Amino acid sequence: MKRFLILVTLSLLSFTALKAQKIDTLSITLENIKYPYPIKFLPINVEGQDIRMAYMDVPPTIAPNGRTVMLFHGKNFGGYYWSHVIRALAGNGYRVLVPDQIGFGRSSKPIINYSFKQLAQWNKKLLDTLGIQKTSILGHSMGGMLATRFALMYPERMDKLLLENPIGLEDYKTFVPVSTVEEQYQRELKNTAESIRQYYKSSYFTVWKPDYESLVNVAAGVTFSADFPRYAKVAALTYNMIYEQPVVDEFKDLKVPTILFIGKEDKTIVGKGLLSEDQQAIHGLYRFLGKNTALKIPGSKIVEFEACGHIPHIEIMTEFLVALTGSL
After folding, report:
1. Maximum CA pair distance of the chain?
2. Which of 230, 240, 258, 312 could bond 161 through an S-S bridge, CB–CB 3.0 to 4.6 Å?
3. What's the predicted TM-score (pTM) here?
4. How far is it, in rounded angstroms, from Cα 299 to Cα 258?
5. Three-state SS for 88?
6. Taking every annotated instance into account, which residue ranges of this chain make up the domain AB hydrolase-1 (predicted)?
C-alpha cells in the first residue's frame, strides 16, 4: 500500500508538472502572448535569410499633433510591456511606433552577426517604409543603447532622444570577464523561472509585487519551447553585441536633444553573474551613473526617480508618464 501511495503521489506530481509546463510554454516568437495593439511585419533579408520585424503602429486617440514616438524595448522584453506608455502617448496626440527588434519578441530569431548599427538601419527602414520623416525615440535598457546608436547615425531623423535606465553607461569590457558566445549560450540554456525571478528582484525592482510575475512568465515560458536552444543562442549573440559594442565613449558626440529618466535604485549590470560580490557593489549604480552620463551628453537633462529600479514605466507608472509627456 505504501509503495502504491508513493507511486500515485509521484504520478500526480508528474501530471501537475506537465500541466504547469503546458500552461507556461511559450513559443520563442511569443504568438501566445497578447500584445496591446495589432501586430504588423516588415520583411527583411539578411545574410541570405528572409526574416520579419514585428511592430505596432498606433494612431493618436485624440486630434493628432503631427509627431511620432518610437519605443525601443530592453533585452529581456518586447513591445508587450509598453501598453500603458502607448496609451498615454496616443492619448496626447502622438502616433506611437513600437518595434520588436530582430531577435526579440514577435520578430524573427535568426542566427546572425547582431550589431546595433544594423538594428538601427532596420529601424530607419521601418520609418522610411511608413513615410515617417522624424521621430522621438524612447529607449529602455538595451533599447537605450540602440536609441543612442540610432541618434549618432541619423540625428536628422530625430526630435528627441529619451533614455530610460539605459544599459551601457559603463564599458562592461573594462570589468566583466570576457566570455565567448558558446560560454554565454551554455549559461542561457540554464535559465529557469526561479533564476530569472531572482535576477529581476535583485536588479530591476525595489519591492517585488505579484504583478511582476507576468514578466517572469514570459521570460521563463520560452524555456519550455522545443525551439529554446535557438532563443538561447540569439540571447548569447545579443549579449555579445552589448559587450563588444559600447556607446559610453560616444555620448559626447550626441547632437539630438536628450533627456535621461533614471530610477536611482537600479543595479543592473550586463554580466553581473560573472562578478564577485565586491565587484557588484561598485558597478551598476544608477544613482551615480545617471548623473555622470548627463554630464557627458551636451545640453542633456536628467529626471531622477527615488525608490525606483530598472523599469520606471512599470514600477512608478504614473510618475514616469507625467515626466515623459511633460518632457515631450
Report:
1. 77
2. 258
3. 0.92
4. 7
5. helix
6. 68-315
Q: What digits encode the pLDDT tens for the residues 71-95?
A: 999 999 999 999 999 999 999 999 9
Order of strands, sheet of 49-58, starting from the edge strand that comes earlier in the sequence: 40-46, 49-58, 95-99, 68-72, 135-140, 158-164, 258-263, 301-305
Cβ-in-10-Å burial (0-12, 13-18, 19+) of 180 comes to exposed
DSSP per position, 159-224: EEEEEES-S-SS-GGGTSPP--HHHHHHHHHT--HHHHHHHIIIII-SS--GGGHHHHHHHHHGGG
Q: How far apart are CA 59 and CA 38, in angstroms?
A: 11
SS3 65: coil
d(CA 327, CA 256): 14
Tens of pLDDT, residues 294-328:
999 999 999 999 999 999 999 999 999 999 999 99
Residue 8: partners with Cβ closer than 8 Å, 6 or more residues away? none
CB 85 within 8 Å of CB 140: no
Residue whose entry in the numeric block shows the C-alpha cell 564599458: 171
303, 204, 218, 38 alpha-carbon torsion, rounded to 10°: 0
Is CATH 3.40.50.1820 correct for 24-327? yes
Residues with Cβ within 8 Å of residue 141, at least 6 apart in sequence: 73, 74, 75, 76, 77, 164, 165, 166, 167, 268, 310, 311
Residue 8 neighbours by CB distance under 10 Å = 10
